[in-house]
Structure formats: structure tokens, C-alpha cells
Amino acid sequence: MTKITNTSITLVPPTGAVVPISTNTKSRAVRLVSRDATKLPELWCSIYIVGSEPFQFPQLFARSKCWKAKSIEDADIVLFTGGIADVSPEMYGARPHKETMPDPEEDMRDILVFLEAVTLGIPMIGVCRGAQFGHVMNGGRLFQHVDRHNRNHEIFVRRNQYYLTASSVHHQMCIPNEEGGMEVIAEAYESTGKWSDDKTYTSSHTDFDVEAFWYPETAFLGFQGHPEYAGVEEYTKFFMEIIEQYIATNPELKIIGGKQRLDKAIMEQRSWRTPDTVNKFIKEYS
Q: Quick one: DSSP state of residue 151?
């Protein structure tokens, strides 16, 4: 990870980026910083993969010294991948938008895995649909249709204060839920329109788009983009570095029985409960 040490700001900029290295607004200097986007951090974790698009992830995680877990109990991390189907609006108490195409069976599969992972204290990662699903399981809601996210675009990483290009092939997106415990890691200003359902339109000229986030009580890390796609090496590196920061080196995660788990004291004190709308969905589709 690249650090600039002669300032109060720590930055991890994309290759060839121009980065401010002084907080003095009268004479702000810049420095060109390059990174090796192909060199990924070594995580040494077992990954249990859930979803309809799992094929590229084993090869991707192998680059960070990770391997596939045979079961949930054997995993250091549970990964929910992207997919074709949307998360069912019933799970967050919304009317369906005309563009929404849910698959309740897929949702039920993911719900069961999520609840087992939460019970065991296993950290989780969601990509695209998987991120949206995890957001809903943490009490969040979704924009069921957004524009301008069917192409790669810039995102801004809040903690480290830099821009990079993310892959983007989605039409739904997480509604910010910072009051519900969401920490927004990365954002974009891409959408000009967002629809929460068929009758509700939200303009987005100033509101940010959630691109990556963290829920500490469930140890859930979400990414809207696709790090497994070709041609987005900077985003792939960002993906692995955020996993390193929020999961692999997180002091609230402990090695218990040889596996990475959320600290038991935190699990006992957390306020997270399965959302009422999700419980209702479970009863209907079980």
C-alpha cells in the first residue's frame, strides 16, 4: 500500500494519479504516484462461495493466497456473488418496480447461508447483487432501478481519498443506510435518476451512489462493482485491499478454532436482528 508520509493524509491513489500532498491551501503541491495494480495483498483465507456467478472467483482469490472452503463452518469468509435475478422487494417491504426480476428461491438460499454465517460470526462479502442482498439483510432498502450504471465509471474512496474506475453492470443499487450502521467506503455521482418503486422517482443530481460499504455488527462488506471482470485491475486491487483492511487485519475479528470469526463479546452486545420484512418473507416462501 502506497503511503505519503510528509502529510497528515494517507493516500492509496490509482496509477499515475495526481495527488495533493499538502493541506496548505495557499501552496498545494502535487506528486505523481504509481502502483503495481497486478500485485494483490496476501489474505490466506478460505472462502465459501454462494451465488449464480461463482466461476471466476476461485481464480481471483487464488491470487491473494486464498482457497475454496468445502462448507460454511470451514470458511474464514462467506462470499455472495452477483447474479441475474434481483433481490425480492418483499424482503425490504417495497412494491416491485416494472424492471425488477426477483427469484425468491435464490433469496431463500442466500438468507439461510447469511443467518448461519451471522450465528457463527463469519465475516461476509457481497458483490453486486450479493452486496444488495447483504444490505437488505442489515435492514437496508434498494433503489429498484437506476440509470447510468451499465458502464464503467469513476468512484471515490472516502477513507483514503482517491478515485479509480469501477466496473458497473447493474440496474439496482443500495439506498444509503448510515443511520442503520452502514459505513460507506466508496461512492459515485453517476446516476441522474433512481426509482424506489413504480410510483416513486428520486432525482440524483447531488445524492451520492453507494459503491462499497461495511456493516460492523454482521461483519458484512459490500461491493457494487465486479472485481472478477477483466480490464479493471485497479478495482480488483481496491477490492482485495479493502478486504485486508476490514476483515483480514480487523482487530474485532479473532482466530477461533483456526478460523476467522467476529469477537464473541461483540456478537453478544450487537443490536442486529433479522429485519421484520425478511422474517415475513421467510414465512411466506419456506
A: S
